[in-house]
Amino acid sequence: MKVTVTHPYVAALLTGSGELPKSPAAWLDARRAAALERANALSVPTTRDEEWRFTDLTPLTKLQVQPVAAAVKVSATDIAAHVVPEAAMRLVFVDGVPAPELAQQGALPAGVTVIALSDAIKSHAALIEPHLAKLAGAEQELFTALNTAFLQHGVFIHLAKNAQLKAPIHLLFVAAGNGVAVYPRCLIVAESGAEACVIEDYVALGDEAYLTNAVTEIAVAPNASLRHIKLQRESQKAFHISNCAVTLAKDARFQSHAVTLGARLSRINLNIDQQGEGVNVEIDGLALIGGRQTADTHTLVDHAKAHGICKQTHKTIVGGAGHAVFNGKVFVREGAQLTDSSQQSRNLLLSDKARVDTKPQLEIYADDVKCAHGAAVGQLDAEHLFYLKSRGLPEAQARNLLTYAFGAEIIDHIPVPSLVDALEKLVMARTEASL
Amino acid sequence: MINSNAKTILEVRNLTATVAGVDILKGINLTVRAGEVHAIMGPNGSGKSTFSKVLAGHPAYEVKGGEVLFEGKDLFTLAADERARAGVFLGFQYPVEIPGVSNSAFLRLAYNTVQGGRGKDELDPLEFDDLVREKMKLLEMNPEFLSRSVNDGFSGGEKKRNEILQMALLEPKLSLLDETDSGLDIDALRVVAGGVNKLLTSDNACVLVTHYQRLLNYITPDYVHVMSAGRIIKSGDKSLALELESRGYDWLLDDKKAAKKAAA
Questions:
Q1: Residue of A390, A393, A402, A403 for testing the chain B interface, max B β-carbons within 10 Å
Q2: Of the residues A276, A305, A334, the one at which a domain ends
Q3: How close A376 gets to chain B, by Cα (Å)?
Q4: Distance (Å) from the C-alpha of residue B112 to the closest C-alpha of chain A?
Q5: N or C: which end of chain B has fewer CB within 10 A?
């Protein structure tokens, strides 16, 4: 008989998971139950686990968190600073609970559906069932298992065949409560030829300690195109763990922009599964941290089919006693000929105590491919500093400008001007405050 | 233009400096007055680029001895940025590229910082735009260079024009132009040199560091100095540059060796 030993912290996290209301779909209840069972069997990873070698979750296990009992009241004024004027529509969640009064419903083109997941399970079950809790594997991933076990609120975005939405869809996740565990879930399904841009935006109103454990699943059908912008601006005491799983069919296009600024400790897992030939992927990442922050990004690009193109740039700026981690796996499977995959990890250390662990990891089983990777860790370039000082800029100002410029390369790629503006101001303010 | 009554801008006395423990400058003496153009020539490795970087405050170079007075004040008490605000300008041989910082934002920041340091009014973006576009005409620069990142992907000639554009904006008292002519085709050289000529007045001074005489066809020096092994070994007027062009540097170095031998 198999004995399941529950890790005490996992047990604490799972408190209340059994009290979730039954969903209208039996298959969903079954998936939640299976995830709950997996979560029970898994432990909180330690630095002895290869996937968590550089990130110690001990601080998280000292934080007592509970599912949200009653959502904190948040007003439109509270979130005014986070409004994205370019967005076609906005859905808002406060501590993971839908806040329809803060949403902004736009006139969406035919074939574009953006609704709360809890509603979608009733109205769009047939579209959801093939993907939800299927794309993001929970077998070995405790946090995905936990998220699925608590699966209740989130967003479902469906883009019907050839449906196109130029303006971004803004999903705003607002943290307001203290000591809460929040489990946002997003499912994005783009049918063939469809195109859209989704902003997944995590912000905090105060300086509370809480856990955001988010899972996003994205299925991009043949010749469809999805841009995913993920902004993490959680409170400096928060923990943010997110798993994003993407499947790409033939000739699909996926662009990811991830900017990490907040949280005491954050971990992003981005898994991209190339299931058809000829996909085109761009992955941009930026983490700017200081103090005692940890920002860990793990990406996996699995070229299982031929003719895949992937361009990845991950940058970190680390001040104070901050610690950035990057692990970039690229698999090129047997038969995935003519893959063109490149990865750059560039890291800027601003202080003696700042630390970066970066690990490109290429595994190539095909013989006719182009793969490149590079990792660089350094400080600000002395010649650049001298150039700016020779133009009259004081040392501190010259340093800030160069630090900002290092990050701007990633931020400037985001095709939403108001976000670029807001992020640049934020980066400038953070660098001026010496992180 | 030589005027022996003009105010002294730069006074260098027996300057010695090292980089990474190696002696590069071994006793430089030079006086530059307002209105003057000095050319410093010499073979590769003679120390002429080092001289300009030491004056501008490059951190890799360590001053070991001697003194430098800028408008009568000890230059070495000032940090590099303070020297810039006081009116020292270095035109770089290899201007650095700074992706992510727009050229217009950089130019305005530099302009306003220097203006502020001199107690003058700063300009808002619109006012500055008018000013910089005016100055760009001087260098026949396309305004599109404003929206690009600083020197990012600029050709050699475009980088040098951008250097002289900064000189035009910052209005230095002393311009040290390090190999401004290197890598320029003849048209670019004509434009860049023409820009420098328009910026020279009886109130400021210019030190041209160059390997070739070609630049001096466009910017006429009042004095030509030849550097070798960290010292100025010969000074003269513009005819010295022509002589160097036709005879090379070897005869001077041979003369020096012969003199050394005779002295021994």
A1: A390
A2: A276
A3: 17
A4: 9
A5: C
What pLDDT does residue A1 have? Answer: 40
Domain count within chain A: 2
- Note down the domain range covering A126: 8-276
CA angle A149, A151, A156 (to 5 degrees): 150
β-pairing, A89-94 vs A97-98, is: antiparallel
Work out the average pLDDT over B179-205. Answer: 94
Task: Work out the pLDDT band at A4, boundaries 50, 70, 90.
Answer: low
Point out the residue among B92, B100, B170 whose CB comes nearest to the CB of A387. Answer: B92
Q: In A76-223, which ranges are continuous DSSP H helix? A: 76-79, 117-123, 125-128, 142-149
Percentage of chain A beyond pLDDT 90 is: 88
Distance between B91 CA and the closest CA of chain A, angstroms:
9
Q: Give the one of B58, B84, B100 whose C-beta lies nearest to A391's C-beta.
A: B84
pLDDT grade, residue A193 (50/70/90)? very high
Tell the burial category of B260 from Cβ atoms under 10 Å away from its Cβ (0-12, 13-18, 19+).
exposed
Q: How far is B245 from chain A (nearest CA, A)?
A: 32
Residues of A with CB under 8 A from a CB of B: 381-384, 386-395, 397-398, 401-402, 404-409, 412
Q: What is the pTM of this model?
A: 0.87
User: ipTM for the complex?
Assistant: 0.95
Domains and CATH numbers, chain B: 8-98+174-263 (3.40.50.300)
B85-104 average pLDDT score = 94
Q: In chain B, which residues have their Cβ closer than 8 Å to the Cβ of A394? A: 81, 113
Residues A240 and A95 in one domain: yes
Mean pLDDT of A408-422: 94
Q: What is the mean pLDDT of residues A59-80?
A: 91
CA distances from B139 to A115, A411, B134, B174 (A): 57, 32, 10, 20
Whether residue A304 lies inside any domain: the answer is no
pLDDT band at B8 (very low <50, low <70, confident <90, very high): very high
- Chain B residues within an 8 Å CB radius of A388: 98, 110
Contacts of B199 by beta carbon, 8 Å cutoff, 6+ apart: B138, B164, B167, B168, B171, B175
Q: What is the predicted pLDDT for the residue at A385?
A: 95
